User: Fold this.
Amino acid sequence: MYETYEIIYSKGDQLMYTYAMAHNREEAEIKAGIPEGSVRSVYPRRTAPRPRNRVYYQVKKMDELERFCLPPDIQSWIMRYDAGSEQALVKQVPLTEDNITMIDRLAGMMTITRRYRGPRHNSRNFTRDCPKKDAERVSIYLKERMA
Assistant:
């Protein structure tokens, strides 16, 4: 199995480094093409392991068939707070008990992202994203799993 090796060598009065993929250290020195005697050290390059089961999402708009298949009370609620041509499904929804219940029902049917809006005290953007505890409104975005 190939590994990536970091090769540190001297060139004139400077220390330089390069990377080479090889089966072992000796092969890495040969592949790097560095003159013999100038190699200072050869180390296997340490990299963090990549997460294997990471799931990526993208924002999407709800199509008409998905909207038609929703219960009638959720359809009317979406129409009341519709975001129009923007990417959000609904926006600027006040955080009342009824609206929170409706959002939770919607979250049980599809994957959503909640972006909380409200005052942000130490910022020029007075009504942009804010912590959940300070929020007055919420915007909902649908998430679609990427392949």
About this structure: The first helix runs from residue 25 to 32. The mean pLDDT is 84.
